[in-house]
DNA sequence: ACTTGCGTGTTACTAGCGGTAACACGAGTG
DNA sequence: CACTCGTGTTACCGCTAGTAACACGCAAGT
């Protein structure tokens, strides 16, 4: 009841929670996102109700799990975005950081973005649809803030920055997802191609064959 | 055994299949993607095993359901992409077509892209993660083909076109998703902002405040 | 020392899901 | 009349998320 005791208990609970999260991480990374609560509990050496006491429901556990990876990724992206270099270099560094992250830990990435990847039957996997969006949204909003803070876009800059933030994040995400699956080129080439796209090479390219408006 | 009879039966089966798909469509659009096979069967006025005989499993039914909407969307996108106009106009028309589609039928869109949106408990919803990707991939590949066919990109054009195809589709998708949720601006403004981004306005913008490399 | 409370853990259960086996009716065919 | 074959059903399995109810241990209060 007194404060010190409460603190002790709280600490112990926090440690337990961390242990449970680490166990969940192992299972999810091994079995994919359709890992059952039973399996996670077993990995942690305890039984289901304890998991539910700590995380409420499966969504809660997933959210806690996702937050760890999400925060880590966002931290490294912020670092790349804040590096002292010119704009194109920073953009390329940020793209490369993101791609390096998903390349280094594809299981984590697939867990965050592609929930029911390995599922085939019952499929009560995590409903990541609900939770992967937040990651993309957070990245979009953060990028929008950076754009608005640092670029002079004239009137309507806030709205423009937000559109661009979400659009660029989506571009990075989709291209990265495709690249991770097919590996059609090196990471550096992908980064360069995307930066070229953002730098207007699409508009600047010439037409290939003659045609009316073409 | 004879051909006419087989044809009759096949026709009847196809009609039945269409009816079932329409019933499934109604249920999914009403109950969200976590609609149960039982509910779909009930809406169609039959029982589960018939559904399974027609579609194999839940994924099969979803795939058939998704294919209808996906094909329709891709058709209208192709039309916009092929319109006789200059490049920027075509890009804007395509973006606008996509956004108009998701704006007009947001339930369909959310079903295709955000599987477990309304789920809260058991959540054995469709695993759209597995099936939404194909839509984005198809759009990316088609766009890549168009880009490669019509633009003169110099050496490495095929790879560049594919990166751009998937990247642009991802940009459109993410921006559209965000826009559909928050409606921060009109559709036309969004289209214009995205086209501006593709036209290199990000690179062309000036810095806002003085700084070393900034 | 005895009881009271509380945190931690368990077993045993419910409700609902996807999916399937086994059976039943109806129509055309030898 | 028997025989198949398509269409439909009921009744079940195994699995899941999530929950009640009970049991141990340990510190505090009297």
UniProtKB/TrEMBL annotation, chains A, B:
The keyword Ubl conjugation does not apply. It comes from the Bacteria. Residues 14-73 form the HTH tetR-type domain. Transmembrane segments: none annotated. Residues 36-55 bind DNA. Keywords: DNA-binding. Pfam families: TetR_C_32 (PF19344), TetR_N (PF00440). PROSITE patterns: HTH_TETR_1 (PS01081), HTH_TETR_2 (PS50977). The keyword Isomerase does not apply. PANTHER family: HTH-TYPE TRANSCRIPTIONAL REGULATOR RUTR (PTHR30055), TRANSCRIPTIONAL REGULATORY PROTEIN (PROBABLY TETR-FAMILY)-RELATED (PTHR30055:SF227). This is TetR family transcriptional regulator. It comes from Streptomyces justiciae.
């Amino acid at each position: 009841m007194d404060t010190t005791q409460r603190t002790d208990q709280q600490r112990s609970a926090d440690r337990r929670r961390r242990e449970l999260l680490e166990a969940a991480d192992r299972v999810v990374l091994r079995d994919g996102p359709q890992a059952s609560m039973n399996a996670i509990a077993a990995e942690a050496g305890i039984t289901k109700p304890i998991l539910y006491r700590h995380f409420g429901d499966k969504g809660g556990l997933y959210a806690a799990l996702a937050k760890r990876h999400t925060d880590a990724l966002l931290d490294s992206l912020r670092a790349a975005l804040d590096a002292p270099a010119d704009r194109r270099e920073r953009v390329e560094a940020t793209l490369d950081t993101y791609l390096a992250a998903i390349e280094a830990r594809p299981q984590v990435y697939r867990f965050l973005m592609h929930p029911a990847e390995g599922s085939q039957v019952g499929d009560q996997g995590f409903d990541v649809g609900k939770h992967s969006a937040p990651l993309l949204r957070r990245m979009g909003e953060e990028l929008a803030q950076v754009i608005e803070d640092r670029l002079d876009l004239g009137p309507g800059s806030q709205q423009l920055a937000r559109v661009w933030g979400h659009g660029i994040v989506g571009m990075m995400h989709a291209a990265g997802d495709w690249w991770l699956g097919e590996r059609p080129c090196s990471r550096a080439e992908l980064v360069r191609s995307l930066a070229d796209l953002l730098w207007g090479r699409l508009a600047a390219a010439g037409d290939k064959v003659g045609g009316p408006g073409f």
